[in-house]
Amino acid sequence: MKVLKQSPSLKAKFKQNINRKVSSQREEASQAWGGGFLGMIGAGVFEFKQIRNQVKGSLGENLIALLLMTFPDNWVLFKNALIPATAGSLTEIDLLLIGNRGIFLIEVKTWKGSLAGNQDNWKRREGSQWVPVSNSPTSQSLYHQQMFQRWIFSEIPSLPTDCITAPVVFPIAKWVGAKNCSVPVLTSMTDLISMIWKSPEYLTDEQVFRISKHIQEYELSPVSKPQPQPQPETKPKPKPKPRNSQPETETEPEPKPKPKPKPKPKPKPRLKKDM
Q: What residue stretches are annotated with the NERD domain (predicted)?
């Protein structure tokens, strides 16, 4: 088994996004407690839960990764692999395993107690009640599968269409009941290893190498800043002509010419009568 890592710059970019998200959630927790001194307590409780969940998650992931180390040398493992998602963002996969029997996007949930899932809707038992789970683990794993499939097939179109599996593993849960979920749901590390070895052989060693290389060398494309559009050239307005300082004198309108009198008609001469 080979364990590969992605670039530190890619990890740093993802961590920046996570820190912004956590900072926003911490502020929401503080406001929910009323701000001020109580808000500081609420933010502290939020921080404690974050650290506890990270420690529990890391322990579960490392334990499964340790068991996967027994796989042959032509298998490749990435821990906390980052793959492209929508709108230029990244999404994280707990364990990404690649070998002749396919690509496995493993989501590890170190949840305790009793859990029930039906058609990707999950509930967990708290006392005598079943409380809905806001973030469905199977929907999350299905999203990982869709994003990875869209990306890797654009890079290597010749891959088999059904070579990707995205199981969810609950290694320490007391009881798990799952029906009609979009991805496999497993309750132990033994079940995970058994599922992997029962899968048919999809990939050659060359394909395993190419897939691993694409994941290892993946980098986010730099975001291009929009260039300002050129403004049309404007011609300078002509300066107004200076007005005459002397006021213009008003002129009286010329009188209209009087019409000429019509000439009187001349009287006709009278004819003398013959005597």
A: 56-171
Letter string b/e over residues 162-193, b meaning 16 or more CB atoms within 10 A of that residue's CB: ebbbbbbbbbbbeebebeebbbbbbbebebbb
> Which residues make beta-bridge pairs with 108?
169
Nearest-angstrom CA–CA distance, 275 and 82 = 148
| Dihedral over Cα of 195, 196, 197, 198: its sign | positive
pLDDT band at 274 (very low <50, low <70, confident <90, very high): very low
Half-sphere exposure of 89 toward its Cβ, with a 13 Å CA cutoff? 10
CA distance 135 to 120: 10
Q: Are 43 and 29 in contact (CB under 8 A)?
A: yes
Place of tokens 């709108």: 87
pLDDT of residue 13: 87
Answer for the pair 96, 106: CB distance below 8 angstroms, yes or no. yes
Q: Tell me the Ramachandran region of residue 9: left when phi exceeds 0, alpha when psi lies from -120 to 50, beta otherwise.
A: alpha
C-alpha separations of 157 from 73, 131, 150, 154, 203 in Å: 25, 43, 10, 6, 13
Q: Is the pLDDT of residue 231 over 90?
A: no
- Rounded to two decimals, the pTM is 0.71
Size of the chain in residues: 275
Burial of 216 (C-beta count, 10 Å sphere; 0-12/13-18/19+): middle
Residue 174 contacts residue 113 (beta carbons within 8 Å): yes
